[in-house]
From TrEMBL:
Topology within the bilayer: Multi-pass membrane protein
Lineage: Bacteria, Bacillati, Actinomycetota, Actinomycetes, Pseudonocardiales
Domain ABC transmembrane type-1 intervals: 95-287
Protein name per its UniProtKB record: Sugar ABC transporter permease
KW Acetylation (keyword) present: no
Membrane-spanning residues: 30-54, 94-118, 130-151, 163-182, 266-287
InterPro entries referenced in this protein's UniProt entry, alphabetically: BP-dep_ABC_trans_perm (IPR050901), MetI-like (IPR000515), MetI-like_sf (IPR035906)
PANTHER family: MALTOSE TRANSPORT SYSTEM PERMEASE-RELATED, MALTOSE_MALTODEXTRIN TRANSPORT SYSTEM PERMEASE PROTEIN MALG
Amino acid sequence: MSLDVGTPRSETAPPVTPVRTAPRRSRSRLASIGLHGALGLASLIAVFPVFWVVVVSFKPNSKAIEATPSLVDESSLDNYRDVLSGAKGAFLTWFGNSVLIAGLTTVLAVLLAASTAYALSRFRFPGRHWLLLSFLVVQMFPFAVLIVPLYNILLNMGLQGSALGLVLVYCSTAIPFCTYMLKGYFDGIPADIDEAGRVDGLSPFGVFWRLVLPLARPGLAVTAFYSFIVAWSEVAFASAFLSASDESKTLAVGLQVFVQQNRAEWGHLAAASVLVAIPAVAVFYAVQRFLVSGLSAGSVKG
């Protein structure tokens, strides 16, 4: 029996049919105009209250309550001069207290939240999931419910009426959210980086401080901004845990002296409000390039 062994046939692969994607529907001109008009209207609605406060800040108190104050007539810097000079409240003292409390809160909250989030992301230990769940549960309680127990705790510790006690209170409310946010961000950093650092002789803390934290700058920026805003603009805790003297008030509490039961100095209040908003806006612009990536990374990984 003979076998006819010839040249092997070349097998050609079947042609690949290109996948046709649905054509992207272009938006009509009318729909585009309507969308941009709605966005512009929403922007005007959001910006108008801020614009109105700025306009009122240049008006005397007698003209500040008018329905349509003029943008030019009787405009002056007298309100800002009175607020900054101390003629209307100890603004600079309040400003210094707010900077101190907000700065300490930001540093402590970010450091503690970052170390806790790193431990939750890299290590497996008993009670880990319950600890994460407790951070979420803490966020469900309104701040007003916590005033009485926190007041008793600070009173027993001898920190009632002090700036340090208020910093600890702010940290207790900011750290749970910051920890959960940073934990999701650390999950997105490969664990191989930690192993490579240990091979090079770094300690666990050295790996965390020198390798992981620099890669987590967007997440750190988000948590730092959140901690700063919590301490900068909060009123309820500051009113309850600080003494009533002007030397210990923060800006958010000090603004209440311009609006009392028998009088209201709207021009000075508006001027002080503009000055209070400037540091918050400056911090926002300093970290804005990290906010989008930090928020998205911390929200989709857990």
